[in-house]
Amino acid sequence: MEKTINNKAWFMVLPVLALVAFSAVIPLMTVVNYSVQDTFGNNQFFWAGTEWFEELLASERFRDALVRNLIFSFSILAIEIPLGIFIALCMPRKGWGVPVCLVLMALPLLVPWNVVGTIWQVFGRADIGLLGYTLNNLGINYNYTQDPVAAWITVIVMDVWHWTSLVVLLCYAGLVSIPEAYYQAARIDGASKWAVFRYIQLPKMQRVLLIAVLLRFMDSFMIYTEPFVVTGGGPGNSTTFLSIDLVKMALGQFDLGPAAAMSLVYFLIILVFSYVFYTVMTNVGADKPQAKGE
Amino acid sequence: MSVVTEPQQSARSTGALPQGRVTGQSRLHLEKAKRPISERFTFLVPTLYIIFLMLPIYWLFNMSLKTNQEILSGFSLWPTNPTLANYMVIFTDPSWYSGYINSITYVVLNTVISVAVALPAAYAFSRYRFLGDKHLFFWLLTNRMAPPAVFALPFFQLYSSFGLIDTHIAVALAHCLFNVPLAVWILEGFMSGVPKEIDETAYIDGYSFPKFFVKIFMPLIASGIGVAAFFCFMFSWVELLIARTLTTTDAKPIAATMTRTVSASGLDWGVLAAAGVLTIIPGALVIWFVRNYIAKGFALGRV
User: Fold this and answer.
1) A1 close to B (CB below 8 A)
2) What is the pLDDT of residues A221-235, one digit of tens each?
3) Is residue A180 part of a domain?
4) Chain A within 8 Å of B157 (Cβ-Cβ)?
5) Can you give the residue range of the structural domain that contains A122?
6) Partner residue opposite A224 with nearest CB, options B43, B148, B302
7) Among A266, B4, B35, B120, which is most exposed with the fewest C-beta within 10 angstroms?
8) What is the pTM of this model?
């Protein structure tokens, strides 16, 4: 759409600007302020320069949490994306099955995050949970509060349960937008199922898949509530991801300087990925006529 | 069984009935029969997936209908003596039901604020080019993507200095951090789908901008406003970290009430499960109306 150049449009953006400035810029400035200062209490601060950043980047605690978070993000992507594509391909395209599938699959997306944690905390318990009880009765020793491996599996399965539907729904939206003519052409050429997937469906899903990958990466990168409720970051520190560690440091121990430095580094990483996301959103598929809006 | 066999019979009977309504129908069935066996079982994949999704929710629901003794004493797949006692506890104990009232209060406040300020901004982004528009649009996105953990502590200090701690408006304003960008992006997606000629025609017809916006434009993007409001509601409803940090007693959300119960020693699993089931209900109620927009909402209006 041709847009008119009109700098008065700024007035329409002003309320948003004021509100987000209040809820984002001021808090971020506080963080920046803390990240370069030190305190002995009594509200007396003095300049610390880049001390906290140097300490942070050298600290094993931060590096471990970052590595854990990256492993977590990449493992859930490796499971959710192929699984989501597969389920979307198998979903019905017409009839009563479509709304039923959409509604039931979307349900986990709308469950409050702490309740997702509670559901899996209960579900995995060996004494009262269906999953834990069944596994232990099958002779598999499963206890997510003691065994780091079991804790990791629980957290990953929980995330797959919670978010695979998002990938499914996005891929499905991409699939139904493919005109029937493409499939007819493929049938005339005698294309195999794999060829149809590889040369018609996958290219047509490229945009939604990129969105799905980025959304899942970002959200898993800042995951807090669900693993916090299930494992509390334990056993030991085995499921302490970046957000859990940051909250522990900032609100638990009140280490303002290090926590602020960590916040900024964390935020910078997110910023880089946001930029990739933005570029994808505004550029990929922009050359083709993309049905925006309805 | 009869339902399954019926199509086959009608397919077989094509020879006997060469004409009429049946032919078109039976041709469809014949086509279906020609498909390879593997394709006839594709319905199994979504079915199994949905069972996997429903099992944990069923388990929570199952527990909510049991007494605490029944939960702890034995293992059963369904409640032997279904009881609504757990739900009664929540509806009669103020420390439980006030959690729901608090949550709904700040969530509704937040939804109203977010959509109200996002509407003009989204219109500006979808219709005009102005100085720094792309940077601004990107900056909004970074706030949607910002980890709440980063903001928990500064929010606490900011709202303390305004004396707003433990008020509903504090949580509503704090949740604007991610909901305003969300609403702007979703609404911009919907508004860009409305042709610009409509605006121009309305101006030629003598409509002033506010009148045009309310009388003509808003009805056109009514579904978009609904979707944006739904997602603001949802994301504010599911958020816990910021809501818990900013409240102590008077505005404490239901989610925080639940975590408190988890950390206490004498766990009442039945009540906890009932509270969990009740938090799923708002989403489950409206899900039917937004079923075609869920992917769109999560993808910030870009699908």
Assistant:
1) yes
2) 888 888 888 888 778
3) yes
4) yes
5) 61-255+264-283
6) B148
7) B4
8) 0.82
